[in-house]
UniProtKB/TrEMBL annotation:
Subunit structure and binding partners: Homotrimer.
Organism: Eleusine coracana subsp. coracana
Chain intervals for the UniProt region annotation (Disordered): 1-42
Main location: plastid
HAMAP family associated with the record: IspF
Name this protein carries in UniProt: 2-C-methyl-D-erythritol 2,4-cyclodiphosphate synthase
PANTHER family given in the database record: 2-C-METHYL-D-ERYTHRITOL 2,4-CYCLODIPHOSPHATE SYNTHASE, CHLOROPLASTIC
Entry EC no(s): 4.6.1.12
GO biological process, one term: terpenoid biosynthetic process
Gene behind this protein: ga02284
UniProt record similarity statement: Belongs to the IspF family.
InterPro entries linked: MECDP_synthase, MECDP_synthase_CS, MECDP_synthase_sf
Amino acid sequence: MATAPSSSLFLTSSSPISTPPRARAGSSHSSPCRPSLRPRRTSQVVAAAVQAEHQPAVAAAPKPPALPFRVGHGFDLHRLEPDLPLIIGGINIPHDRGCEAHSDGDVLLHCVVDAILGALGLPDIGQIFPDSDPRWKGADSSVFMREAVKLMHEAGYELGNLDATLILQKPKISPFKETIRSNLCELLGADPSVVNLKAKTHEKVDSLGENRSIAAHTVILLMRK
């Protein structure tokens, strides 16, 4: 099997990463009454491990041509369950439900990561950070974001613009929209003028409209440096 060039995105399985489990909102380790709107910071242990030895997660793909621009689309959906934290764009949003997921379940960051990877012609987030890997249990999704951004720069591209849409019936995102967008800009290293965030309900239709799930779409334009 061919091997891919060394990259920070492909990790070795020899060194397990210890990440704290996501606490249920009703447990003694959570604080549902005072949710934090500050960006969640990546554990130093996780960040260090991501920068450690690397190993391809998939077979090498042919090097893509140096196009002047690339477009990527990302989509993600997670089931909502009671007493879990709801993390959107790295921000803890007050709600009685949160995303059931292997990592922290951040539907927006997962969606943006997939858009970047797709634009670069790389495997999706589920192949590179599989939910079968215990290292990513409860992991902060900013880890995945920073690695995708690093790959973008390594490939010689920078963000042109990004347009993201959140789809959820509850809670209302408008009070937290600028905080989410600001953190997204920080993770991307982008000016706010090129990062757009919208939120829509699903008109009480299907699982999204019944507050049983949350979804996101992202379209991204990468420009050659």
